[in-house]
Structure formats: C-alpha cells, structure tokens
Amino acid sequence: MEPVTHKVRVRVPATSANLGSGFDTVGLALDYHDELEFTLCADPLNKAAQVLIEGEGADTLPRDESHLVVATFRRACEHFGLARTGFILEAHNNIPQARGMGSSAEAIVAAITAAYAFSHDGELDRDAVFELAARIEGHPDNVAPAVYGGMTVSWTDAADTRVFGDGSVVNDGYRTVRYLVDPSMTATVFVPDYELSTAKAREALPATVPFADAVHNVARASLLIGAMNPAALADRQDPNALLMTATEDRMHQQYRGPLMQPSADLIAKLRAAGFAAAVSGAGPCVLVLHAGDADAIIDAVATEQLESGHWKVLHLPIDAAGVQVSRS
C-alpha cells in the first residue's frame, strides 16, 4: 500500500491513571500535550528513521529504532499494510518521562495514529487506534483517555484471551467507555524531580489484597463517575466532598508509598487540607482533582515542596478531545 500523504502531525494529551480508587481501570486525559511530526523520506531506498527531540527526554531518549515511537510506528505501519519506509520524527515533548503522566501511552498512541493517517484517508478511526495501542501497551487504562479524551473506564474481556503453544498470551478483548467530565473540573499535577519506573511500582504490589479493601475500592471507583460529573446526579452533592471520598484507595498506594515517600507525604498533606490528592498513575507525580478554581490554595498547601526546588506544579483543564491528527 502507498502512503496517502507525506507528512502527518499528531497531538496527544498527557494522562493520569487510577485516580486513587480506580486501579488499573480509570484514566483521565489532561490538557498538556506532546506534539510529533512525521515526514516520509522521498528517497525510496532510504529506510532509516531520523529522530529529533525537543523538550522532555531530549537528553535521555534514544534516537534510533529503539525509540518507542519509532518501534511502534514500524509495527503499526506493518499492521495497516504500509511498506517499511524512511522518515523523520520531530518530537516536541512536554510530558515528563517516568513520572506517571502517561508518556509511554502517548508515544504508542502517537505512533499508531500517525501510521493510520499515512495509510487511510478521512477521519481517524479511534477504535482501531485504541485496539492496537492497548495490545501493544498491554493494558488500556492510559491509552484509552489518550485516544478518546475525557475520563475513561477500561477493562479486558477474558473471552478474547488466546494462549499460544509457546506460552505467549494475546488479549484482543480490550474495552473502554468514556464518561462526561464537568467543565468545572480541574487537575493539578505536582511533578517531582525524581523518577519511578512502572515496573518497580508494579513489583511493590501484593499478589492478593484483603476482601474488605477490594470492596472499599469498588465503592469508591463507582463513585468517581458521579464525582467527576455531579450535574448528572439525581441529588445535588458537593463535588469536592465526593471527590475526596471517590479518590480514597486501599489497593495500591499504601504499597507503593515507600518507593516515593516525598510524593506520599505530599498526598497526605493535601488530603489533610481537604483536597482530593492521589498518585498519578504509578507515580511519582501527585494528582489533585478539584471542582472550581483553587489553584492558589493548593499551591499554598504545597509551599514547602514548591520552594524546595524539587517540584513543579501544573494546573490543567481536562482534555476532552483526545489525540488529534492532521495531514499535509
């Protein structure tokens, strides 16, 4: 198949997963983006990738075929029927790496979206992007909001799991639904100057949790849907009180806290002041959800951290659009 265009631009939002109680299921798109431009080489004999990086990761990310965007783009092009080709990737990165803001999901979604746009005319098929992105990422909670925007709740359907003779497992049954988020909802993200790998955060989790803790999280995660869109509730409720309850967690944060003690301490301080704070994804970023403008008060609570020079703060609206793409 021949490409339908020679240049594609992609804009992908940062994401925050879990939101406290919604472990491995709930994700939220944030109005903070990476922008990537893919330009195909005119020389058909040139099959190489040239990678230019500006912003986050400029000093640490690889610039060869091992770059996650490049590797995923190659795989996605093959999936959509495009022959291997040379290209230039210009990445303008804002999303911090290894902090819990969905940088790997962004890279995967960006690459698949670009491959789709090179291989198809017309509107982006978000479902096709989501299905392949979830399969490559191995779980859907971050890729879903990056693709669709807003707040998503995702799961896997065991009926679609296939086990092969070599022991490998493929799950094609990734599912997600998108929920409305009230326009008044805002997110504050505190970004520390240290990293935490998702693999290490995953290793800290126990194989089982107490039954009471599981029930606790089921109730709080169910409440998240209404807490993020209180206008849909049958009875008027204080959204910030609902958010405090909805973000309570007993499934993962207590086990991961020792790996990111400064983040755990900041969460405790913010929650003591009445703000719905939680670990963003696997951490170590701290997410605060709030209805209405409380930026100055939230910053005041975290004065010690912000003045230390080890943290920066981002006050962000919720991204309702998800990944955006254009051709030229």
TrEMBL record:
Annotated GO CC locations: cytoplasm
Catalytically driven reaction(s): L-homoserine + ATP = O-phospho-L-homoserine + ADP + H(+)
Subcellular location, record wording: Cytoplasm
This protein's pathway: Amino-acid biosynthesis; L-threonine biosynthesis; L-threonine from L-aspartate: step 4/5
UniProt enzyme class: transferase
Keyword Amino-acid biosynthesis part of the UniProt annotation: yes
One Pfam family, short name: GHMP_kinases_N
EC code(s) of this entry: 2.7.1.39
Main location, first listed in the record: cytoplasm
GO molecular function terms listed in the Swiss-Prot or TrEMBL record: ATP binding; homoserine kinase activity
Domain (GHMP kinase C-terminal) ranges: 240-303
SUPFAM superfamilies assigned to the protein according to its UniProt record, in alphabetical order: GHMP Kinase, C-terminal domain, Ribosomal protein S5 domain 2-like
Residue ranges constituting the GHMP kinase N-terminal domain according to the UniProt record: 68-150
Entries under InterPro entries matching the protein: GHMP_kinase_C_dom, GHMP_kinase_C_sf, GHMP_kinase_N_dom, Homoserine_kinase, Ribosomal_Su5_D2-typ_SF, Ribsml_uS5_D2-typ_fold_subgr
One GO BP annotation of this record: threonine biosynthetic process
Record bears the keyword Amino-acid biosynthesis: yes
Keywords per UniProt: Amino-acid biosynthesis, ATP-binding, Cytoplasm, Kinase, Nucleotide-binding, Threonine biosynthesis, Transferase
Function, as annotated: Catalyzes the ATP-dependent phosphorylation of L-homoserine to L-homoserine phosphate.
HAMAP family associated with the record: Homoser_kinase
Family, as annotated: Belongs to the GHMP kinase family. Homoserine kinase subfamily.
NCBIfam families, A to Z: thrB (TIGR00191)
Protein name as catalogued: Homoserine kinase
Protein's organism: Bifidobacterium cuniculi
